[in-house]
Amino acid sequence: MKNNASGGAVYGLGLIGAVIYYWTQATTFWMGVIGLLKAMVWPAYLIYSLFSFLKM
Fold first, then answer.
1. Residue 45 sits in which domain range?
2. What is the DSSP letter of 13?
3. pTM here?
4. Fewer CB atoms inside 10 A, N or C side of the chain?
């Protein structure tokens, strides 16, 4: 049985990086909370922007 779990590791590192980025950019507590929410859905924005750029 083959297990390809490397995508989860990449997503996890991206999530941690996004949380750190958004948290350090926040000027208020609630902007930090919104940043945490943004960090959870960054792949969706990335793919949407890529498809928009490629006109798919």
1. 28-56
2. H
3. 0.66
4. N
Model pLDDT, residue 5: 62
Q: Is residue 56 part of a domain?
A: yes
Whole-number Å distance between alpha carbons of 24 and 39: 12
Structure confidence at residue 31 (pLDDT): 94
Contacts of 40 (CB under 8 A, 6+ apart): 15
Q: Which tens digit of pLDDT belongs to each residue from 17-54?
A: 888 998 999 999 999 999 999 888 888 888 888 889 99
Q: What is the dihedral of CA 17, 22, 24, 28, to 10 degrees?
A: -160
**CA angle, corner 20, sides to 18 and 21, nearest 5?**
65
Residue 36 lies in a domain: yes
